[in-house]
Amino acid sequence: MKDYIKRKLENYPNFYAGRLSKRNVFRSLTSNQRILPNFIIIGEAKCGTTSLYNYLIQHPNIESSLTKEINFFNWSYDKPKNWYRAHFPTSLKKKMLKRFSNKQIITGEATPLYLFHSLVPKRIFQMLPEVKLIICLRNPIERAYSHYHDLGIRLGEEQRTFDEAIETEIQSLKQKNYNILDSDYGFSSRLYQYVSRGVYLPHIKLWMNLFSRDQILFVKTEELNNNTSESVNRVFEFLDTKKFNGIDVKERFNVSKYKPMNNSTREILKEFYSPYNKELEEYLDEDFNWN
Questions:
Q1: 106-110 and 62-64 beta bridge pairing
Q2: Portion of the chain with pLDDT greater than 70, in percent
């Protein structure tokens, strides 16, 4: 019966949000009375977005969304705006906390795949022109290897060795004249893009052509890992939220253990990424020290 009701409700996306439950039905019924996000963490996968989001929502002034990764602007954009609103707190809650606790709450989501969907920047800008964007970036060599193990091997779909996978992908990129901005946005194809998803700049330019520089904060995964409290406080400052010392930053989320990468493989990727990393640093006028 529950599955039957769920299938019926899915035909009415303005009424249905998330898994079927009393809580989610209530969210759908109150969707037009809910606030939209103040910030979005847009990527990339295996760059610490889950850890950062879990640190941020420990702040008493930051409310979490129904789920961390909503995937509205990429895979669910055919659904109405109220479906998206249903994932966030009510405006009444925001007003009550402000009035009785003098607490100014904000909210946000974190969908890494937004970064690499070339239609998403314009979609977000049209709906949320004032939103603040947090872009997590990691050394693309380490990101690719982590991506391979955590999403390819762990899900049981990847049969190739890492060397075979990157060789195939680099050859494919050569055939496409290194066109990173392709139009295939499906999950299965993105799942196996270990190399190309480390070429950040072509996608970043799409965002920076729409949003002002002061709306975008770049968070380096290496700094988030090594100087976690300082990195999180920098994000709080960016979000105009007071620093909060009660954040538990000891736990790291979605961390996998695997054997070190072969040195020969690392050299291949280092050579591949070197010009892209240099171009990124020059464009952002920021050092990443990945080379």
A1: parallel
A2: 87
How many C-beta atoms lie closer than 10 Å to residue 201's C-beta? 16
Model confidence, pTM: 0.88
Q: Which two tokens stand for residue 117?
A: 């969907």
Helix axes of 263-284 and 140-147: crossing angle, nearest 10 degrees? 130
pLDDT value at position 116? 87
Q: Which of 184, 203, 188 is nearest to 151 (CA)?
A: 188
What's the pLDDT score for residue 9?
Answer: 55
Separation CA 128–CA 124 (nearest Å): 5
Rounded Cα distance between 273 and 263, Å, is 15
* Residue 13 binned pLDDT confidence (cut-offs 50, 70, 90): low
Rg (CA), the chain: 20
Hey, which bits of 84-239 come out as E strands?
Answer: 106-110, 132-137, 216-220
Instruction: For the chain, give the mean pLDDT.
Output: 87
CB 49 within 8 A of CB 41: yes
What pLDDT shows up at residue 269?
A: 97
Instruction: Out of 29-43, 55-69, 180-194, pick the least confident.
Output: 180-194
Cβ distance 168 to 268 under 8 Å? no
Residue 265: other Cβ atoms inside 10 A: 17
Please tell me the distance from the alpha carbon of residue 31 to that of residue 18, in angstroms, as a whole number. Answer: 12
The per-residue b/e assignment along 121-159, b for 16 or more CB within 10 angstroms, e otherwise, is: beebbeebeebbbbbbbbbbbbbbbbbbbbbbeeeeebe
Q: Say whether domain 34-284 belongs to CATH 3.10.105.10.
A: no
